[in-house]
Each structure stands twice: as structure tokens, then as C-alpha cells.
């Protein structure tokens, strides 16, 4: 059978596991009604909704930042019963109908929602990817109930009753990019007294593998071993919805290991999400031949990193190409979508993206080129608004592989090598957005 060519993008705008693709295009402004997948019409007269539920959905710990960290595109619905548990392991999650009789919407770019409902008691479900919070609400006739923020903020840890759920995450701690500090700011670990860095105690909500960075002390239950130990064990990898590899010195014995390369492909193909930053690029480059770098000879581990000393680091005045990300950034603060967006400390230079194999559909191989999410100039301090288009390059990109997704950034996730810092850089906010987005279910064609 001839290979069919599929134009596939990193679907940043997909609905969280709930509405079908036919429902995604609805704006949901006043509430959409689930029919349990039957698509049928009710013949009996139904009293119009006579109440409102309103609120704003926040990221974990989102109210502690200025401006607050909201969540766009979150699924919000009310139903008569609680949702089934989220799969604790990697799965190819197909979007399904909301429960029969449920009323649903999605949050706008500001994180806000407004549901037209009937006066009653409900189970309120708010979900983005594997982040989910479930609450009970009661709304009276004629009432416009503002759901309090403590009931609309996504959790930073799993609750014992199943009403608060987060993804299972693995962090391969890096030498130069302290992503664990961002995780602590989001409540996934204890933040130090200065509000800048992680404290490795028993409150860590993600597993940690050594990849050149600071580890939890021996005996800490979240200290799980080395990057090689994780990536050599596919079944262990599948325990994590997302695996993060921030910037680090290269581990040749890991990235050139054929078992690791095959496992990475199988993990993402099964629905896993894989995030890589700047100098850790060989985790991407040695496995998928889709992204090419200045100085990269395609074989020598770290060749692009060696070449980067001629120009790196550089701060790039970039802009968000993805429309949903752009609108969300602008809702956070005017200008962050492009007019005043600075991506700090880029350490690699993506020069070329090529089309490559990303999976099969109905037995036919499919091909796609990575999608550019954020772009900017390579020249330090330059702005995308003032340089020729030919001098603008990808800074954040992604591509599907099978049922999962891969993300890469040329810049340090936390923005600074000078040390931990309080608050959030804009690029940290972008990562939070991407963490939410890459966890959503599949509404389009499923690749195998």
C-alpha cells in the first residue's frame, strides 16, 4: 500500500478528555449538553436552565504568582456522578463523550468559565490532561454561583479519595537547568524559605532520576536511580505520563544506547509525553531524525553543544506562533505573546526541521514535520519584529509520534543559570501551559 502523507501538528488546542471532536468547535459559552454519545434528541420539553456556575481555573499553586497562573482550554462539566479514575500509566487516551446529561464547557484564554445549569446539586469536574479536581456544588434557582478559587485550582498532589489527580511524572535532573525548582513553585515539592529552590524532603510528588543534577538524598522514596536505569526499562517508563529531560551535560552511554532509543520510541508511541531542553538535545536527535542543529554532524554526541560556544547563550525576542498559546500569554500580560516576550538563555540553534515518520494509520506509514510553537532570532537581544524572516528560528517545537508527543526547547526552562530565582519567568509559564496541553486526549486520527 502506498504511504499516505498526513499533515499533523502538535495539537495544542485539543479538548481535555471529554468532548468529542465534533464538540470541540463549539464555544461552550452557555454550556453544552452531553448525550452519552448517542447523538439523540429528547422529544419531551425541557425547562431552560435557570442558574449559573462561574469561575476561573488555576494551575497548581497558580494563585501564588503575579499575575495568577490560569489554565486555558480546561474541560469543566457538571454531572450526577463522579468520573472514572484516570489511568495511572501511559495510555492512548481517546476523547469520549461527557456523561449523559452533563453540561460542559471549556475555559477561555483567561481561564474563565460560565455554565448555564438547572438548580440542583452536582458533581463539578475540572480537568486538563491528567490534572483533575472533583467537587460537589449546590446551586439554587436564579442563582449565579461564583465557584471559589479553592475549588477551581488544579491539584499539586494526588488525594486519597481520588478527587484530586495529577500526572505521574519523572524528572531526569539536569546539570544546568533546575526544573525541580519550578516544580516546587507549583507545589509538586517543598519550596525553600527564599521561595526559589526545591527542598528534597518527603513531600516530592514526582520521581527523580540522576542525569547530572542534584538528587534527593539516599533513602528518599523519590530517588529512583539513574537515567539509564529508567530509560532501559520500558515498563517502568510507562508508569509515567510525562518524562522531563532538562538541560544537562551529555550522557553518551545513555543517548547512544539502542535499547534506550527503541524504548523512547515505544514509550511515546504508546501515548507517553517526552520533554527535552537545550543541551540535552541528543535525547531527541539520536532517536528521531527530525530536528537539526547548528554544528550537529548527526553522529557525534554533543557536537551542537560544542558549536554553541560561538554564539550562546542568547536571549531571543520571540513570539508564540501557536494561536492558543499566544492568546493565553496575552491574557496573562499584554505583550507576552510577542511584543515583549524574551526567551532567556538559549543554548542551541535549530537550523532545520525535516519531515519524517511519525507512526502508522490503518497500516499505512504517516509522515510529518515538527510544528514550531515559539520562534525568534538567534542573535542575542534581537527581536522577531526587526530581523528578516530568514533569521528567525524555532525556539520551542513539538511533534507527534504514535499516540504521544515530543517537545523541545532551545532555552533553559527556568531561564537562568545564575541560580534559583523567586517567581516565574515567562518561559516557565510557557512550560506550565505545555505540560497541561501535551496531556490532553486524542480527538483526531490515532497514529499507531
Describe the structure.
Strand 6 and strand 7 form a beta hairpin. This protein has a nine-stranded mixed beta sheet. A six-stranded antiparallel beta sheet has the order 1-4-3-6-7-9, with no helix packed on it. Strands 5-2-8 form a three-stranded mixed beta sheet, with no helix packed on it. The chain has helices at 21-24, 179-185, 227-231, 234-237, 252-255, 258-269, 282-285, 303-307, 323-332, 426-438, and strands spanning 32-33, 51-56, 75-79, 103-106, 112-117, 120-128, 131-139, 144-146, 164-165, 169-173, 190-191, 198-199, 207-210, 223-226, 242-245, 273-277, 291-293, 314-317, 319-320, 342-346, 350-353, 356-361, 364-368, 371-377, 392-401, 404-409. Mean pLDDT is 88; it is low at 1-29 and 36-43. It contains ten helices and 26 strands. It has two domains: 21-165, Immunoglobulin-like, CATH 2.60.40.1120; 169-438, Rossmann fold (3-Layer(aba) Sandwich), CATH 3.40.50. The protein has 448 residues and is an alpha+beta fold.
List the helices and strands and how they pair.
Blueprint lengths: L20 H4 L7 E2 L17 E6 L18 E5 L23 E4 L5 E6 L2 E9 L2 E9 L4 E3 L17 E2 L3 E5 L5 H7 L4 E2 L6 E2 L7 E4 L12 E4 H5 L2 H4 L4 E4 L6 H4 L2 H12 L3 E5 L4 H4 L5 E3 L9 H5 L6 E4 L1 E2 L2 H10 L9 E5 L3 E4 L2 E6 L2 E5 L2 E7 L14 E10 L2 E6 L16 H13 L10
Parallel strand pairs: 2-8, 10-13, 10-15, 13-14, 15-16, 16-26
Antiparallel strand pairs: 1-4, 2-5, 3-4, 3-6, 6-7, 7-9, 11-12, 17-21, 18-20, 19-24, 22-23, 24-25, 25-26
Structure summarized in a few sentences:
With 448 residues, the chain is an alpha+beta fold. The chain folds into 2 domains: 21-165, Sandwich (Immunoglobulin-like), CATH 2.60.40.1120; 169-438, Rossmann fold, CATH 3.40.50. The chain has helices spanning 21-24, 179-185, 227-231, 234-237, 252-255, 258-269, 282-285, 303-307, 323-332, 426-438; strands spanning 32-33, 51-56, 75-79, 103-106, 112-117, 120-128, 131-139, 144-146, 164-165, 169-173, 190-191, 198-199, 207-210, 223-226, 242-245, 273-277, 291-293, 314-317, 319-320, 342-346, 350-353, 356-361, 364-368, 371-377, 392-401, 404-409.
Amino acid at each position: 500500500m502506498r504511504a499516505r502523507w498526513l499533515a499533523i501538528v502538535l495539537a495544542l488546542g485539543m479538548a481535555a478528555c471529554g468532548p468529542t471532536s465534533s464538540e470541540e468547535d463549539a464555544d461552550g459559552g452557555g454550556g453544552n449538553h452531553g448525550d452519552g454519545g448517542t447523538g439523540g434528541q429528547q422529544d419531551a420539553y425541557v425547562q431552560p436552565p435557570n442558574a449559573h456556575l462561574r469561575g476561573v481555573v488555576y494551575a497548581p499553586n497558580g494563585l501564588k504568582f503575579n499575575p495568577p497562573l490560569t489554565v486555558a482550554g480546561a474541560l469543566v462539566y457538571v454531572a450526577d456522578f463522579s468520573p472514572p479514575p484516570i489511568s495511572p500509566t501511559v495510555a492512548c487516551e481517546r476523547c469520549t463523550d461527557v456523561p449523559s446529561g452533563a453540561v460542559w464547557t471549556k475555559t477561555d484564554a483567561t481561564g474563565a468559565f460560565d455554565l448555564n445549569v438547572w438548580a440542583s446539586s452536582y458533581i463539578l469536574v475540572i480537568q486538563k490532561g491528567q490534572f483533575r479536581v472533583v467537587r460537589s456544588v449546590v446551586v439554587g434557582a436564579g442563582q449565579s454561583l461564583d465557584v471559589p478559587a479553592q475549588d477551581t485550582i488544579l491539584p499539586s498532589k494526588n488525594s486519597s479519595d481520588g478527587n484530586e489527580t495529577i500526572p505521574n511524572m519523572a524528572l531526569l535532573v539536569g546539570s544546568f537547568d533546575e526544573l525541580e525548582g519550578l516544580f516546587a513553585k507549583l507545589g509538586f515539592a517543598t519550596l525553600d524559605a527564599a521561595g526559589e529552590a526545591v527542598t528534597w524532603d518527603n513531600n516530592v510528588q514526582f520521581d527523580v532520576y540522576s542525569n547530572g543534577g542534584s538528587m534527593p538524598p539516599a533513602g528518599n522514596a523519590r530517588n529512583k536511580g539513574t537515567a539509564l536505569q529508567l530509560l532501559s526499562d520500558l515498563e517502568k517508563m510507562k508508569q509515567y505520563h510525562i518524562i522531563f529531560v532538562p538541560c544537562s551535560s551529555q550522557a553518551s552511554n545513555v543517548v547512544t544506547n539502542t535499547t534506550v532509543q527503541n524504548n523512547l520510541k515505544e514509550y511515546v508511541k504508546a501515548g507517553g509525553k517526552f520533554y527535552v531542553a537545550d543541551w540535552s538535545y541528543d535525547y531527541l536527535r539520536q532517536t528521531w531524525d527530525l530536528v537539526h542543529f547548528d554544528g550537529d554532524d548527526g553522529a557525534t554526541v554533543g557536537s551542537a553543544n560544542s558549536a554553541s560556544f560561538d554564539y550562546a547563550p542568547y536571549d531571543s525576542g520571540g513570539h508564540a506562533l501557536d494561536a492558543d498559546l499566544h492568546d493565553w500569554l496575552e491574557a496573562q500580560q499584554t505583550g507576552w505573546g510577542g511584543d515583549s516576550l524574551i526567551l532567556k538563555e538559549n543554548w542551541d540553534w535549530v537550523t532545520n526541521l525535516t519531515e519524517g515518520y511519525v507512526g502508522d494509520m490503518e497500516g499505512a506509514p504517516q509522515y510529518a514535520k515538527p510544528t514550531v510553537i515559539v520562534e525568534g532570532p538567534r542573535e542575542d537581544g534581537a527581536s522577531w519584529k526587526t530581523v528578516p524572516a530568514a533569521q528567525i528560528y524555532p525556539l520551542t517545537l513539538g511533534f507527534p509520534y504514535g499516540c504521544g508527543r515530543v517537545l523541545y526547547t532551545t532555552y533553559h526552562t527556568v531561564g537562568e543559570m545564575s541560580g534559583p530565582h523567586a517567581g516565574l519567568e515567562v518561559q516557565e509559564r510557557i512550560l506550565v501551559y505545555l505540560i497541561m496541553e501535551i496531556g490532553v486526549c486524542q480527538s483526531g486520527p490515532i497514529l499507531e
